[in-house]
User: Fold this.
Amino acid sequence: MLVLLVGQVGRVGQVGRVGQVGQVRQVGQVGRVEQMTQVKRVRQSADWALAAVVLVHLAISVLHGSAHSGAQVPLSPAAAMFVYIVILAGPIVGLAVSRWRPIGGAWIVAASLGGALVFGLINHFILAGPDHVGHVAAEWRTLFGVTAALLVASEAAGVAVGVWSASRRSGRTA
Assistant:
C-alpha cells in the first residue's frame, strides 16, 4: 500500500510505503533514463561518424583510382590485391559488421584504414617509384597528388573514428 507524504501545506511530497518515517527520496529512474539516452546518442554518433568516414574514404579512393588509370600508374599484383582487399573492401566490411557487432566492426574499420594509411604514405610519399606523387605524369599529377593527400587525411580520420567508436561502445573513453 502506498501513501503520499505531505511536506508543506499545499505541497504533496514523494510516494512512500505506509509506516515509513521521514522524507522518501526519488529512485534514480530519471538519472537512469538520461544515462540511457546519452548512451544511445553516443552509439548513434559513432554509427554516423563511422559510416561517414568509410563513405568519404571510398569516394576519394574512386577518384584516386581514376587518377591511377589516367596517369597509367600500374600496381603490382600484390599491391592490387592489397588495394582491393584491405583499402577498398576492408572498411566496407567493417561498416557492415558494425551493424551486428559494433565494436568488432569499428576495429575492422580502424585496422583496415590503418593499413591503408601506411601503404599510401609509403607508396605515394616515401618510396621513389611510379606510384610516388612526384613521378606521375604532369597532366595527372595534381589530381593524383591531391587525392593521395586526401586519402592520408581520410585514413587517419578513419583510424581515429574507428578507435573512438570501438572504445565508446565498450565503455572506455579514448
About this structure: The helical segments are 29-71, 77-97, 102-126, 138-169. Residues 45-169 form one domain.
